[in-house]
Fold:
Amino acid sequence: MHNNLIQKYNIPGPRYTSYPTVPYWNAESITPASWKDTVVKAFAESNSSEGISLYIHLPFCESLCTFCGCHKRITKRHSVESPYIDAVISEWKTYRSLFDATPRIKELHLGGGTPTFFSPDHLKMLIDGIMEHSRVAEGYEFSLEAHPNSTTREHLKTLYDPGFRRCSFGVQDYDPLVQKAINRIQSFEQVRRVTDWARETGYTSVSHDLIFGLPHQTLENVVDTINKTNEIAPDRLAFYSYAHVPWIKGTGQRGFSEEDLPKNETKRALYETGKKLLSEFGYEEIGMDHFALKSDSLYQSLQRKQLHRNFMGYTASKTRLMIGLGMSAIGDSWYAFAQNEKTVPEYETRANSGELPLFRGHLLTDEDRILRQHILNIMCHFETTWEQPDSQFPELKECLLMLAEMEADGLVELGKDKLVVPEHARPFVRNICMAFDLRLLREAPDTRIFSMTI
Structure:
């Protein structure tokens, strides 16, 4: 990759797990009643055919990882588990009261925080409560995120029994100095052990999360981490760029000096080296920052052009309705987004009172939905088309003019009614999507609100 292009295009930009991106949500456009209306509409359109998705946020962690940008609550008091689960089940009961049919769950994902902070018994209580008045859709996929240090065989078996077949372990990096800087100390042996437990239990897809751009990280670290990863051979993995956003996340991302972070060409070399190694080990690149073996469903969905991207990242299938349960969880009805209260006490109080504990949201306009589809196409398939009238919008010509310089730099190929991102330009996909982000273009931020694109 030419260093001049990296310097030119390495600017702050969204990761596009949604459009509009959260900073550009129009909170005044949505009310609890209008969110409910869109949920009912999406449920009616999709439940009997594709089913619905549930994302359940389990926010507790025993210690703070200083690289983390998630909403979480740090505590060692496990007495928080049972009240929180009661609140999540109450919230789900409120959603179920909106439906005129039994929900068919196509995707169920436990995210964090640290889902395996919860005891196996409490996780069973949670899943039993969710599934008591629901049924499993055909081709379902149940998955969880897990911390290698807190995951036991019992955790994995307890969730395997109701249908979980995919788990993701946060690894980040195996170097002791890097692990100390990010306060995430776990041995290679422990990661291998829990991965083996998952496979012995019957999980068919095991994923590892790795991060490049961490403090004190070197090329040697990345090579060693990926060589070790190859020894375990997870079915898929994420190789994320560290998003350094301490102005948003506060002291949690100031556990080290800015000078300790690899920057620009050095940081990009970490990714290019890692990507090359992963390719040699048989991993195929999936969208942005994700890799999978050809035997994994994520790769197969890419081949079938069914890859989808949402607040959980890339998924092998999509549903029109995704309900977010738990503190700070985000739901997506395709017509609107809604995020829950961002503190545990406020969330629990409102969920237990029988109201939907919404903190903010956004009702998508017709323009939003058109632009969202273009950005999804580019993020998932590295191409999009405006051949059909329903994919066109008034500012299309201006958006394409903005891409002219990237076309001259060889980063995008523009046809009469189609855009294609060549393989060598995939690191710049966020920049390409920004040309379709009319909300960002109309109202450029005055301060840093996004991480760097490359």
